[in-house]
């Protein structure tokens, strides 16, 4: 049964509670900048200050990069943009990419939105882009991040020791991956 998406803003992939849509740099750059400057999110994703101008430039550049696909994560109930999800470093020859998700609205952390967005992006990566391997990396302290990855089917491959410097301390990074054959077994 096809659901009515006429009230959604440019829906690309529709899920149970969320839909993924293209970001509009002029419209979404302020929210993007706010998330990237948030201390909780900055701890895991970015150490650089982001102004609205820089945020718009960053989003514009990501859309120009053919090795990067980025979506906004929006709530179906009110069309509110609550996060970002993407595939980066897409390697066409090896059919691989690196996945990331950010739920920028802290009030929605721990409610399964990251897991739902992850599953939608995996379906897109494996079934529409024909990727064979999708990997992701989470700082050891980002328990919510790696738990969401595990719920979505990613397998822990190992830990890269003291890979990332944040706030004067080196942090270990957990590497996860999922293969298309493993993904297809879950359908």
TrEMBL record:
<feature type="domain" description="N-acetyltransferase">
    <location>
        <begin position="18"/>
        <end position="172"/>
    </location>
</feature>
<protein>
    <submittedName>
        <fullName>N-acetyltransferase</fullName>
    </submittedName>
</protein>
<dbReference type="InterPro" id="IPR016181">
    <property type="entry name" value="Acyl_CoA_acyltransferase"/>
</dbReference>
<keyword id="KW-0808">Transferase</keyword>
<dbReference type="GO" id="GO:0016747">
    <property type="term" value="F:acyltransferase activity, transferring groups other than amino-acyl groups"/>
</dbReference>
<dbReference type="Pfam" id="PF13302">
    <property type="entry name" value="Acetyltransf_3"/>
</dbReference>
<dbReference type="InterPro" id="IPR000182">
    <property type="entry name" value="GNAT_dom"/>
</dbReference>
């Amino acid at each position: 049964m096809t659901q009515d998406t006429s009230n959604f803003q440019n829906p690309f992939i529709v899920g149970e509670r969320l839909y993924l849509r293209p970001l509009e740099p002029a419209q979404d750059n302020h929210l993007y900048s706010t998330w990237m400057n948030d201390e909780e999110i900055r701890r895991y994703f970015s150490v650089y200050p982001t102004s609205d101008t820089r945020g718009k430039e960053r989003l514009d550049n990501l859309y120009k990069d053919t090795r990067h696909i980025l979506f906004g994560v929006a709530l179906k109930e009110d069309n509110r943009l609550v996060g970002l999800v993407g595939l980066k470093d897409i390697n066409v020859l090896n059919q691989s990419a690196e996945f990331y998700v950010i739920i920028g609205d802290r009030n929605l952390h721990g409610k399964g939105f990251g897991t739902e967005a992850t599953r939608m992006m995996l379906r897109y990566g494996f079934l529409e882009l024909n990727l064979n391997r999708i990997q992701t990396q989470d700082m050891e302290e980002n328990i919510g991040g790696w738990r969401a990855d595990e719920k979505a089917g990613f397998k822990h491959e190992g830990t890269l020791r003291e890979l990332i410097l944040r706030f004067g301390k080196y942090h270990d990074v957990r590497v996860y991956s999922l293969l298309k054959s493993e993904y297809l077994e879950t359908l």
